[in-house]
Write a structure and sequence with these properties.
By secondary structure, the protein is α+β, with helices and mostly antiparallel strands. The chain has seven helices and ten strands.
């Protein structure tokens, strides 16, 4: 819930200054002797704008939005999965201290299966691309029911067309109190008629959760949209790196992911030049978050070496499809940034 603001905020001032710096840097000739494509500039600017909205979210709610994947662990076994779900509960309680949403619903966001069967499972929890719009798409102003309340991320058939069937036709995105001015036409996946696409098979199918409203038992639904830069077929990915180091947590490839991308790492200040363990690494923007996009070629490339920690920022080497990857914390591509 956000209060109306009459004056420009510090975050907005920082955002304006950052965008000016980005544009200035991108308009200059890059170190490799070429001007960046206009589309690269547009994507980079939007990544920084969304990043500013996430910082604004933290200022308003006291926490960076989590995208904790319940299966996304390679250390700690089942205990780590339990910890991630606990973190989701804790994060939601911090953001909405008076909320009365059910624990089963909050845990479902992290991939837990509801044994009471009142909440359908979200396999493996929210993906890094689904997290962008879920957290910045706005919540209800009802402090007790930020998800189930009016104009929140969930909807019922009675709030839609009232035809007795709860489906994608019942959602009204225009009513949402957005934390970022998303171009709603660039949310996906969509059918040819413009509806949330939860029917067509394949990797791009939209995922959703249905659950019983804690107030009256009415069946409600949350669609998990992905957000695409203008002209792009690849969604923006969000990674919360505020809670763990690579040694403690590193997301595995999500079952619903569009690629094998993960958060970028770099050597810690105490590390040797050739890391052999995750203890030698920290996340880029450790303690904050990362927003990544595949760049103007719309191809992520093979992130295996990055995920293994053998290729780190800024040294790389970032070659091939990896080279034009864009992020909210740098003005150009990974290729421009590498030493």
């Amino acid at each position: 819930m956000r209060a109306d603001r009459q004056a420009i905020s510090l975050v907005e001032v920082i955002t304006i200054v950052a965008i000016i710096c980005i544009l200035s840097g991108l308009l200059l000739v890059s170190p490799h002797g070429h001007h960046p494509p206009r589309r690269q500039v547009e994507i980079t600017v939007e990544l920084h704008q969304i990043g500013a909205a996430i910082d604004d979210f933290r200022n308003a709610y006291g926490i960076y939005p989590p995208n904790l994947l319940a299966n996304a662990v390679d250390l700690g076994g089942d205990d780590r999965g339990v910890s991630l779900r606990t973190d989701m509960l804790s994060a939601f309680k911090t953001a909405f201290p008076r909320h009365q949403e059910t624990e089963a619903l909050i845990l479902a966001l992290a991939g837990a299966i509801d044994e009471s069967r009142t909440v359908m499972a979200l396999t493996d929890g929210m993906t890094s691309s689904e997290a962008v719009f879920f957290w910045l798409g706005g919540f209800s102003e009802d402090p007790q029911y930020p998800i189930s309340g009016a104009d929140g991320p969930s909807f019922s058939d009675a709030e839609g067309n009232g035809d007795g069937i709860l489906d994608a036709r019942d959602e009204d995105l225009q009513s949402r109190d957005l934390h970022y001015e998303f171009d709603l036409t660039r949310l996906g996946p969509r059918t040819d008629s413009g509806l949330f696409d939860d029917k067509h098979p394949g990797a791009a199918i939209g995922r959703y959760v249905e659950y019983d409203d804690p107030r009256d038992g009415t069946r409600r639904r949350i669609n998990f949209w992905r957000y695409y830069p203008r002209g792009s077929t690849v969604a923006i990915e969000y990674f919360d790196v505020s809670r763990y180091t690579p040694a403690e947590y590193y997301p595995a490839i999500h079952s619903a992911s569009m690629g094998n991308v993960g958060p970028l790492t770099q050597l810690s200040s105490e590390a040797s030049p050739q890391p052999h363990a995750r203890e030698d690494l920290v996340f880029v923007e450790q303690g904050k978050f990362q927003l990544l996009h595949a760049g103007f070629d719309d191809v992520w490339g093979d992130w295996s070496a990055i995920r293994a920690g053998t290729v780190v920022a800024p040294t790389g080497p970032f070659l091939g499809d990896l080279a034009d990857t864009l992020a909210n914390f740098m003005p150009g591509t990974l290729e421009d940034k590498q030493e």
